[in-house]
Amino acid sequence: MTIAITGATGHLGRLIIQGLKQQGRTDLVGLVRDPAKAADLAIPTRIADYDRPQTLGAALGGVDTLMLVSGSEIGKRAVQHRNVIDAAKAAGVGRIVYTSLLNADRSPLSLAEEHRQTEAMLKDSGLAVTVLRNGWYAENYTGSIPAALANGAFHGSAGQGRIAAAARADYAAAAVAVLTTPGHDGLVYELAGSPAWTLSDLAAEISRQSGRDIPYVDLPQADYAKALEDAGLPAGLAAAYAGFDAGAAQGALDGDGATLARLIGRPSTPLADSVKAALA
């Protein structure tokens, strides 16, 4: 059974491939836009560009299961995913596993709409489908630790909203489990880490491990967006990130960690471990 992984050179795609190889799977194909970035994957690769449908048919030839890692270009993903799904059907792919968003059907996050559209496409595709509604990646926040250390504070706009984040490796492990064991067709998994934490908890853990006082400073959404823009982010992206924090303040990033733990056979990565990795 040949498994193809889209976004194979991305953070999540690489971890999924690593997990599959650790299980001894050799029937893998990495789908990439830039083969030059894929040399270290040590698996066969094929060019597959979401924006160039003409590349997708050949890339999916002979593939039994497609691991469709959602695209990263917000605003373009529904069309990109449609291209992949149509090509998969035409190529005779039998099964798709898709990375969606936690509670995508009701999430207020701006990210959710394209995931809702993609899930609807998959439902109508006639293929066997498993949807992995991934919660927030801990790395989305721990990636800001260097800036927090430089600024002497961790800034955000999430209030005391609980964030049921898990490490990217945890979500990759769930994908590997679903790709390699039976009984997942037609299911939607809501995946989140446990226990949930707040940005105040994150700042306290950064302080504990760094030996410095790094408080959490909560800003109004507009002020946080302006701070991100001043730090160099494009205005649209800064506004989106501030909006994600505002959603977190309303509970949009909270969730139940039981399903993820069951799929991967262990608890999700603790916050302390994610902070340690970022500080390293």
UniProtKB/TrEMBL annotation:
Q: What is the lineage of its organism?
A: Bacteria, Pseudomonadati, Pseudomonadota, Alphaproteobacteria, Rhodobacterales
Q: Does the keyword Oxidoreductase apply?
A: yes
Name this polypeptide is given: Quinone oxidoreductase 2
**NAD(P)-binding domain location, by residue?**
7-182
Which segment of the chain is annotated as a signal peptide? none
Which molecular function terms from Gene Ontology are attached?
A: NAD(P)H dehydrogenase (quinone) activity
Annotated keywords: Oxidoreductase
Keyword Oxidoreductase found: yes
What CDD domains does the record point to? TMR_SDR_a
Organism in which the protein naturally occurs: Paracoccus haematequi
EC number(s)?
1.6.5.2
Name the encoding gene, please.
qorB
Kindly give the InterPro entries that the UniProt entry links to this protein. Answer: NAD(P)-bd_dom (IPR016040), NAD(P)-bd_dom_sf (IPR036291), NmrA-type_oxidoreductase (IPR052718)
